[in-house]
Write a structure and sequence with these properties.
mainly alpha; single chain; about 80 residues
C-alpha cells in the first residue's frame, strides 16, 4: 500500500466519523424537539428562555467588545 492509499483511507475514515458524529448530534436534537412540543412543561420553557436570553446578552457583550476594539484601532 502506497502513501497515497494510506492518506486516502485515513481521509475516508475521518469523513465517516464526521458523518456519524453529525448523525449522533442530530438525534438528541430531534428528541428535544419532540419534548418541547409536549404540553405541561412550563418549567422547561422558562429555563430555555433564560438560556436564550443569556446567550443573547453574551452575544451583545461580545459585539460591543469587538466594536470597541475596532474603534480603538481607528482612534490611534
Amino acid at each position: 500500500m502506497g502513501m497515497k492509499d494510506q492518506f486516502q483511507d485515513k481521509s475516508e475514515q475521518w469523513q465517516e466519523q464526521a458523518k456519524q458524529k453529525a448523525q449522533q448530534a442530530r438525534e438528541p436534537g430531534q428528541e428535544r424537539g419532540r419534548q418541547s412540543q409536549q404540553p405541561g412543561r412550563p418549567g422547561q420553557e422558562r429555563g430555555r428562555q433564560g438560556q436564550e436570553r443569556m446567550r443573547d446578552e453574551e452575544t451583545e457583550r461580545l459585539q460591543r467588545e469587538e466594536q470597541d476594539r475596532l474603534d480603538q484601532d481607528y482612534d490611534v
